[in-house]
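## Example record

The block below lists the input lines for one assembly entry, exactly as stored, with component labels intact.
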Amino acid sequence: MELTNYLVLAAILFAIGATTVLLRRNAIIVFMGIELMLNATNLTFVTFARMHGDLHGQVIAFFVMVVAAAEVVVGLAIIVAIFRTRRSASVDDVNLLKN
Amino acid sequence: MTPAAAFVAPTIEWAYLVPVIVVLVAGVVGVLVEAFVPDRARRAVQLVLALGALAGALTSIVLLWPDVLERNGVRVLGGALVVDPFGLAVQGIVVVLALLATLVVADRTSTKQDAFAPTGAAVPGSAYEDLARRRGLEQTEVYPLVLFAVGGMMIFPATGDLLTMFVALEVLSLPLYVLTALARRRRLLSQEASFKYFLLGAFASAIFIFGVALVYGFAGSVQLAEVRGALLGGTGLDGMTSLVLLGLVMVLTGLLFKVGAAPFHSWTPDVYQGAPTPITGFMAACTKAAAFGALLRVLYVVGQALPPDLQEKLVVALWVVAILTMVVGTVIGVVQTDMKRLLAYSSIAHAGFLIVALVGFGELSGFGVRALLFYLLAYGLATIGAFAVVTLVRERAPQPVVVPAEADLATVGAGAGAGTSGTAASAGSDVPDAGAVLGEATHLSEWAGLGRRSPWLAGAFALFLLSMAGIPLTAGFIAKFTAFQSAVAVGAWPLALIGVLASAVAVFFYVRIIVLMFFTPTPTPTPTPQAAGGPGTAPDGASSTGGGTSPVAALTSRVTVVRSEGFTTVAIAICVIGVILLGVLPSSVLDLAFEAAKFRP
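Predicted structure tokens for the full assembly:
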């Protein structure tokens, strides 16, 4: 199978993730969109690593996973803190800071 | 199988890693201090550790400087850290500003309460939070978090490797997301700010790393030097130079988000307003310095090597961003009524002026870099000083406290619980008696007449504002002058012209505050019937909260200036001296910045 197919798939996944972030209202779903974007990035890295015959890309994918995990820790903590206060995780309800 | 003897240990030039290591190790030790030191001694230990680490890092940077200048930069760990004059200079600026910001963070003022929630985990308005407050708990994890963020900020501009840059971006961002959520007062706003910062920040870093993936696809490496080599030598993927342009644009998007440039600025006002004020000063000054350092390195190392037609496209994009940022920052800044929001828009405008200094990245002269370094220092000093002043100007509870129909946060929830103004939301548990000192008086009207009551404080604030406006004899003037000069030198005079016009508009809103402080009488506090609160007025309450304090609160609460414990006074004094010195005798610093305009790709 052509390697470029994987790149196209990664681009589509990234676009779906970005659309999710921009359109969905639930913070958890938005967050999943970001994770999808990061995983699409991993696929891109691994595919390019294969194309170049270079291992760096595969190692970078691990770094991205670790960073994504760290982001989950902080992100979920913030979302939970908001949820405990307001009983809602919708990004639309978070609107005190408006001018 | 390779025999173990064949393994060659990499040589690491540890000496050049010292500034970063000192800060990060102090952060780790700070976490251990949280676990093992009894809580009475914790704050003092953390404070000594944080200030000591930053001072140590600054010392080692100063000691490394001649050597780095002589060797014209050292690549440590295979280019993961590039300690060249430019990188070291940005590190120095970050550490100096972080030191000042830490002083402001440490100050508990005469109220004996710092700016942070007693426990960040407590639900705002809950009995548990009340208990923690009465016990006098303190969230001393703030100091290690600041140190981790500073560590990330020091690696960020001094790395020659896009992967390390991504990791540094996260290391500096994650602590900032947490710190943003930790305000002692107006906690709903604070958590909300953190939430927005996190979601948008994570989105931006996902775009950044995808850009890195595309650049990797072109060059087969994430090392900036090798990407440059692939571009110049034509060894990249065939016919795929547009891939690197797309990747580069995505990387720059991630970086421009961090500096708060339009159209990626929308988080800035909200986050600057909601975050605890000392942290706002810290991130406004230090994040901007670090992110501009990284932006400049990417542009100078990779952007410069692009083929001319692609480079032209990149320059056009930068022009658009610069103009948009300056216009948005100044025009929307004019109509702000909240002090922290106003300073946030001013910081957006400054990001625009800084990008003006960047557009000449195609030329090899050091003027743009010199302008950028000087600007970062001048802007950082004025910003930290201004936010430090904001921490001291507080509201005082109105004499007869009419407790508003106390909204139960848990049941009324997001709608009306949020609707009782931010002050009232925190006031619910925060104000036991009349005359107590509350949160910061951020509404502009509350600053009226401040110059008559606290002439020194208001004078310092006026100086910082004048510097931001770019009035001669302050640091801001020289900074703007060099920035626009470097743009004119590369033929970008329309940008410089727009910059000057934007500065002129900005002068209006800075001077308006100065007039307000010195020439407007203090409004006499007239106790009016408490009107805030109650689900019926929720929409009004919510919208006026965004602007700071509701008009009702502005009338019934008196503004007071709390005394600093000494830390903030020192920080403000250093900022004042720095702003004046850089404005009157800028030549030595400018020479230093010019020397620092050397890269090692």
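Chain A has a mean pLDDT of 90. Chain A has one domain: 3-86.
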